[in-house]
Amino acid sequence: MLDYLIINRENHIAFNHPIGWDLKIAIKHAWVGNNAFHALLYNEGMKILLPIDGSECSFSTLMWAASTFDRDKACYYLLYVVVPPPAMVGLDAARAVEYDLEAGHAVLKEFKARLEEKGCSVERAEVVTGNPAEEICAYAEAIQADQIVLGSHGKTGLNKLILGSVSVQVLEHCQCPVTVHREPTTK
Fold it and tell me: What is the pLDDT of residues 84-103, one digit of tens each?
């Protein structure tokens, strides 16, 4: 069972977390000498981008990040991406986007409050419209993110089929290190 997948542009790491090793120790044993991972290991003033969609997986990822990174040195950026409906949907598309924007702001407000309750610093919480993977990568570049932490799966149903590939696309296209967090499964 893979609990964490950590990848950057030059190298790939995938490892299991079978006996409860501390994540920092597991990374330290797997990878030495990369500046981005030095910042990850020692949490030196990192800008961490957390793309969220309101799903259970994104909430679990948010809580994992809040407990993993140094609260005094990590600065979080929350991003909610609204996917515009296809053009053929018609006039109701504007109302659907407006509804999704309002839902996005509500999710950001809730998730920001949860991070702040944990003592974490949230620099920005923003809603944008567009292709999720493209928007996440562009936002990461704009803020010069040191790390992107996102869930392995998004919303359920049809959206899960569409958005489930977002983490893969972000891994392939973003220039900064990406951590994909998977919710623990119960057996």
Answer: 877 655 557 777 788 889 99
